[in-house]
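Duplicate of #3305? Posting structure anyway:
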């Protein structure tokens, strides 16, 4: 860490604590399907699978066949559910990796059965997605009378129907109406399908829904963002604050006193009104720190908040150091995380950038080494 110009610290204890918070909310009999897609929400797929595997999840959720194959390469034998439709180009890899496909169409079921025959050995599993309003995938809940029987008639010995789920579009909204409506549509679909719950894992909840409506938890929940320290519903009440998982730090590369009238950054959007001390921080939007925070965000140095001035460059950010006594080149700068009593959350950064914590985390650049902090090992990196 000491030799990096900028880095991300990842707290494994925080992941464990957040997992525990979700598990407690939904009760110990509800299975967990932690979502580890998009490189474990940007923090490291391997790290996240390794830290959660011993916690006894039902399986893991991924978005692509490649991600599922990567989970398998880690030695995971639990189910690995791919939640997006498999493309013709990736279905073979999914089958060879013995992933659990999500089926949204009769053609997809036929393709999965075909792959299952080709791969041989044991049957391949799939979950059926019901579209209750999300609109991007799944069978339409209103048409269950058609696709339900058609699906049943196309089942072969080569595949096993092991799950059925839906996805909420507004679980983060202060308005509970849309989620309650989607749940009701899903419930009705299950009744019409006459799905036997003993055979099929029923699930619907992402992080926000699991924490806000544990009564919709059914057999399993699919939390993602909360595990990684993002608040899944910053505008709603009643969601506990997750423990921060990611800390983004860089260094003061340079500290200089600048004359009144000095300008900073592309477009020279900030002009020193008087003589000021500025620091140059060794991180930029090329590392995934949002450019939108230029002139709006703050960083922490020596436990104090300092403003980001001027536009953010690809590799550098400039800060004003009006009241950080002793600030010197080499000081650690915290862009996201805690320093002393001050804290910048991923959701604060997301709010200033007019986006969501998910985008901030998954956007953290490959240029930033991920430093794993396992507090159980006395804080040493693994
Ligand atoms: C990403 C995803 C989740 C997890 O959502 P969070 O809001 O991160 O908890 C759950 N289900 C599906 C289908 C997803 O794509």
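Output from current build:
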């Amino acid at each position: 860490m000491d030799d990096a110009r900028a880095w991300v610290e990842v707290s494994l204890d925080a992941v464990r604590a957040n997992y525990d918070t979700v598990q407690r909310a939904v009760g110990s009999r509800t299975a967990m399907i932690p979502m580890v897609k998009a490189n474990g929400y940007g923090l490291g797929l391997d790290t996240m699978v390794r830290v959660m595997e011993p916690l006894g999840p039902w399986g893991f959720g991924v978005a692509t066949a490649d991600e599922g194959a990567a989970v398998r390469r880690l030695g995971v034998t639990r189910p690995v559910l791919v939640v997006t439709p498999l493309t013709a180009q990736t279905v073979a890899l999914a089958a060879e990796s013995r992933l659990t496909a999500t089926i949204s169409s009769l053609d997809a079921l036929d393709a999965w059965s075909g792959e299952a025959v080709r791969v041989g050995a044991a049957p391949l599993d799939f979950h059926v997605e019901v579209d209750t309003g999300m609109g991007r995938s799944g069978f339409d809940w209103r048409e269950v009378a058609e696709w339900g029987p058609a699906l049943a008639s196309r089942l072969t010995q080569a595949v096993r129907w092991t799950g059925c789920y839906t996805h909420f579009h507004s679980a983060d909204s202060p308005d509970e109406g849309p989620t309650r409506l989607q749940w009701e549509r899903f419930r009705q679909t299950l009744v019409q399908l006459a799905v036997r719950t003993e055979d099929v894992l029923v699930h619907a909840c992402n992080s926000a829904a699991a924490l806000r409506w544990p009564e919709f938890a059914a057999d399993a929940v699919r939390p993602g963002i909360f595990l990684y320290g993002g608040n899944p519903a910053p505008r709603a009440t009643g969601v506990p604050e997750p423990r921060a998982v990611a800390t983004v730090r860089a260094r003061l590369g340079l500290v200089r006193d600048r004359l009144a009238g000095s300008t900073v950054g592309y477009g020279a959007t900030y002009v020193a009104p008087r003589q000021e001390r500025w620091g140059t921080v060794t991180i930029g939007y090329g590392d995934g720190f949002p450019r939108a925070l230029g002139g709006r965000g703050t960083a922490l140095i020596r436990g104090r908040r300092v403003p980001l001035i001027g536009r953010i460059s690809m590799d550098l950010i400039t800060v004003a150091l009006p009241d950080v006594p002793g600030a010197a080149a080499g000081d650690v700068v915290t862009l996201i995380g805690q320093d002393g009593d001050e804290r910048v959350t991923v959701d604060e950064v997301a709010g200033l950038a007019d986006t969501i914590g998910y985008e901030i985390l998954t956007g953290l650049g490959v240029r930033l080494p991920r430093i794993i902090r396992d507090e159980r090992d006395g804080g040493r990196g693994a």
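Confirmed duplicate; merging threads. Residues 35, 37, 83, 167, 206-208, 222-226, 232 surround pyridoxal-5'-phosphate (CB under 6 Å). The CA atoms of residues 231 and 241 lie 6 Å apart.
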